[in-house]
Amino acid sequence: MEHLKLFILLVGLGLLNIHVFAQGICVPDTFEVNSVNGKVMAHLDRGDEPFPDVVIRITKKDKPKNIVKETKINDSGVFDFGDLKQGRYDLIASYPHLKDFYLDLLVTAKHASKNEQIIIWLAADFIKPCSGSYAELKEK
Predict the structure, then answer these.
(1) For residue 61, is pLDDT > 70?
(2) How many domains are contained in the chain?
(3) What is the pLDDT of residue 25?
(4) Which secondary structure element, helix H or strand E, spans residue 101, and what is its range?
(5) Which of 27, 79, 103, 117 is exposed most, by the fewest CB atoms within 10 A?
(6) Between the CA of residue 66 and those of 70, 86, 87, what are the distances in Å?
């Protein structure tokens, strides 16, 4: 009987460890862009919809406490910071009661062929990495 209790305890701790470990892994790819614009979306039961009232902040990678630009998303979910100087930045998407989503950006020189926007999908699935939130680049 003692072995069964020990086995159940170890399995329970192992599952707890997997759950906690999954929350901690959040390393999205670096996005190379020439302008910082896009939208914030959410997968809902009624379909994909814009996610209003999200605050988007841009900080320099080497000075994370200095906010370069900031905006609050409106009902359309769209954000547009226009052209930023070339360099490395963090884009942080924040919404009350959700874990902040961080995205590493490399802003490069304009290329006529690059016409992409950043789509940020915010979620609250605490079992998945980044709480289920992710980002993608899409053609405009």
Answers:
(1) yes
(2) 1
(3) 53
(4) strand 101-107
(5) 27
(6) 11, 17, 15
